[in-house]
UniProtKB/TrEMBL annotation:
It comes from Rodentibacter rarus. Keywords: Aminopeptidase, Hydrolase, Manganese, Metal-binding, Metalloprotease, Protease. Belongs to the peptidase M24B family. The keyword Protease applies. GO terms for molecular function: manganese ion binding; metalloaminopeptidase activity. CDD domains: Prolidase (cd01087). Residues 9-143 form the Aminopeptidase P N-terminal domain. This is Xaa-Pro aminopeptidase. It is an enzyme of class 3 (hydrolase). The keyword Lipoprotein does not apply.
């Protein structure tokens, strides 16, 4: 069978995930997860296909128009896959399909049926079951198939409390892939630093990043890349990336690859001309200090909220010292006066999705556990029309790394991307000498 059907994780891992899911389901229940479908970009062209993360998590199967059904009765536990049947003509045009015959042996599934026969099989398979774990409005095409099937469950339950919690704690194999995603992403940020100079366009730097992702086997970015020169950095989700980079400005790059379905998510901010100005240095050092303190605090037993409270304190004190905020630090924190310069959270879970599955608790107060992976991304954004001393206007800085919570603290999966001022300046300087520019 073609290697394209093989997941980048051992089959045992997907089998074990399904078994663990079945173990958490109540007796006489079924759990239904649909795959993603092809999405049209324009006329007869589709966006690149990306599998649904939950479906992938349980199957390692990368085709559209499929559904996984887990069935648990008093006597048996079964995994059943609905998928597209083989079709030589369509496969000649659109690519290979695994097909109904090969799904059980290749994916270690108990039974497989054509997805077109879903409405015929589903009621029979689930006839004596009382509960269905399902998330409506997640995949509308799935809702439609289900609505066309005659079912009579008495209970409908949400599978997210089971599956999201499983996804939140990464296995050793997942950690290996996430380490690789972090490493490739770091290499791309190094490449961006090497290639940046005044008058190049933001999209030119984006292209260097995407090239670096691709040549290491990460075919896609895990989200749309942000390459934001100067004041553009103050637009948090700036993705136009169509402006020329200016001498004397900073550039903020938030870009991450997707490797074997797992996301990297790094932000680095550095000077277009390779040398930080004094005001840029002051803001950058403040964000870096806050980020380093947060990394010390993001360990098992603590929460994102605890680290963020400390980050806020450091930033507010720093902004007061620089004359950007005026007043008493405690009162400014109380009034949330920092929100005009720091308006997002400190970090989020990372995994198959860049904003990964799992509950956060109120104000992200959930206690961190070994095996969780999250980002740490403080920033300060002082827009060009902010009412602050002139030298600080138009400076936006974010520094983002990916952390694995370990037994003895945490591991920075993205440490290969430089973030110390000296390291960034040296790297950029070296490349300029080499290029004689
Ligand atoms: N790049 C998305 C984020 O940092 O959350
Ligand atoms: Mn992030
Ligand atoms: Mn990011």
């Amino acid at each position: 069978m073609d290697l394209a059907y093989m997941a980048n994780l051992p089959q045992e891992e997907f089998i074990e995930r399904r078994q663990r899911t079945l173990a958490k389901m109540q007796p006489n229940s079924a759990l239904l997860v649909f795959s993603e479908i092809e999405k049209r970009r324009n006329n007869d062209c589709d966006f690149p296909f990306r599998q649904d993360s939950y479906f992938w998590y349980l199957t390692g199967f990368n085709e559209p128009n499929a559904a996984l059904l887990l069935v648990k009765t008093e006597q048996t536990e079964k995994a059943i896959l609905f998928l597209r049947p083989r079709d030589p003509l369509l496969e000649t045009w659109n690519g290979r399909r695994l097909g109904v015959e090969y799904a059980p042996p290749i994916l270690n599934i108990d039974e497989a049926y054509a997805i077109d026969d879903f409405s015929a099989h589903f009621p029979k398979i689930t006839r004596n079951l009382t509960a269905l774990y399902y998330v409506p409005a997640f995949h509308l095409w799935g809702d439609k198939l289900l609505s066309e099937s005659a079912v009579n469950f008495t209970d409908f339950l949400d599978w997210r409390p089971i599956l999201s919690e499983m996804r939140l704690i990464k296995s050793p194999n997942e950690i290996r892939l996430m380490q690789q995603a972090g490493q490739i992403t770091a290499l791309a940020h190094i490449k961006a630093m090497q290639e940046t100079r005044a008058n190049r366009f933001e999209y030119e730097i984006e292209s260097e990043i995407l090239y670096e992702f691709n040549r290491h086997g990460a075919r896609f970015a895990s989200y749309n890349s942000i390459v934001a020169g100067g004041n553009n950095a103050c637009i948090l989700h700036y993705t136009e990336n169509d402006q020329a980079l200016k001498d004397g400005d900073l550039v903020l790059i938030d870009a991450g690859c997707e490797f074997a379905m797992y996301a990297g998510d790094i932000t680095r901010t550095f000077p277009v001309n390779g040398k930080f100005s004094q005001p840029q240095r002051e803001i950058y050092e403040l964000v870096l200090k806050a980020q380093k303190r947060a990394i010390e605090l993001l360990i098992s037993g603590n929460s994102i909220k605890q680290a963020n409270d400390e980050v806020i304190r450091i930033k507010v004190q720093g902004l007061v010292d620089l004359g950007i905020l005026q007043g008493d630090v405690e009162a400014l924190i109380e009034q949330k006066a920092y929100r005009q310069f720091y308006m997002h959270g400190l970090g989020h879970w990372l995994g198959l999705d860049v904003h990964d599955a799992g509950e956060y608790g109120e104000e992200r107060s959930r206690i961190l556990e070994v095996g969780m992976v999250l980002t740490v991304e403080p920033g300060l954004y002082i827009s060009e029309d902010a009412n602050v001393p002139e030298q600080y206007r138009g400076i936006g800085v974010r520094i983002e790394d990916n952390l694995l919570i370990t037994e003895d603290g945490n591991k920075i999966l993205t440490a290969a991307a430089p973030k110390e001022i000296e390291a960034i300046e040296n790297l950029m300087q070296k490349n300029r000498q080499f290029l004689k520019m």
